[in-house]
């Protein structure tokens, strides 16, 4: 099995493998191009972000300082708005529903490294998808961990680290993120 096949199957893979690294380098290059577009050219920005990510609905706006590991693994619905400096480590798929708003400096990770020093010295990694529902507002400086599913009508308070699934109609916050209150559907 090639390393990229292991990656796609959710198995441990060697992340310095040439094929794996070149996918990341290609995404980094496209993000660099996106981030260099003049702020006076929003149409060019939208065209570029649509070229980078796997799929997008209508009415999307991504502010600059966007970075990802693949791009084609990121899927956004209709009415998607993200503020400055969104990082999506989309080694595995990251899916957003409709009506999602993201504050500045948000990180969404799909990748972990081993907890053993031997595994890290071998440059191993393993990726799990992140799923985000409809009508979700992610506050600034939130970090979402690999494998997490966020439901519909969810607000994540600024600064939270989301380590577990979040059910529908919930406001969560803190490190690790815990329920603050229920939200009205
Ligand atoms: C596209 C864009 O998003 S750009 C805008 C970026 N803006 C942001 O990121 C702001 C995000 N907003 C927040 O985090 C706000 O604090 C909100 C939305 C969570 C506040 O929601 P409210 O329902 O008004 O919460 P309220 O202020 O009444 O606080 C409720 C409880 O949550 C706590 N809380 C509020 N914010 C946070 C937070 N960021 N982290 C942890 N706990 C929090 C409060 O201390 C309070 O706790 P208590 O009941 O023990 O006193």
Automatic annotation (TrEMBL):
InterPro entries linked: Hexapep, Hexapep_transf_CS, LacA-like, Mac_dom, Trimer_LpxA-like_sf
Record-listed E.C. numbers: 2.3.1.-
Classification via Gene3D superfamilies: Hexapeptide repeat proteins (2.160.10.10)
CDD domains: LbH_MAT_GAT
Domain Maltose/galactoside acetyltransferase intervals: 4-58
Protein origin, superkingdom: Bacteria
Molecular-function GO term, any one: galactoside O-acetyltransferase activity
Keywords on record: Acyltransferase, Repeat, Transferase
Family named by the database record: Belongs to the transferase hexapeptide repeat family.
Protein's UniProt name: Acetyltransferase
Species for this entry: Enterococcus malodoratus ATCC 43197
Taxonomic classification: Bacteria, Bacillati, Bacillota, Bacilli, Lactobacillales
């Amino acid at each position: 099995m090639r390393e990229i096949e292991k990656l796609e199957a959710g198995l441990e893979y060697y992340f310095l493998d040439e094929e794996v690294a070149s996918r990341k380098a290609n995404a980094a290059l496209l993000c660099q191009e996106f981030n260099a577009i003049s702020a006076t050219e929003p149409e060019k920005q939208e065209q570029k972000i649509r070229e980078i990510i796997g799929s997008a609905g209508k009415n999307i706006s991504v502010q600059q300082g966007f970075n990802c590991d693949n791009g084609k693994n990121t899927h956004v619905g209709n009415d998607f708005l993200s503020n400055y400096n969104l990082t999506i480590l989309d080694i595995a798929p990251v899916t957003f529903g409709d009506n999602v708003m993201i504050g500045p400096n948000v990180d969404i990770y799909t990748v972990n490294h081993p907890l053993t020093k031997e595994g890290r010295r071998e440059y191993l990694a393993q990726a799990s998808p992140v799923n985000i529902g409809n009508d979700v507002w992610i506050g600034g400086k939130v970090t979402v961990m690999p494998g997490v599913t966020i439901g519909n009508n969810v607000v994540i308070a600024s600064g939270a680290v989301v380590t577990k699934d979040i059910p529908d109609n919930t406001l969560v916050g803190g490190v690790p993120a815990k329920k603050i209150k229920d939200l009205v559907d």
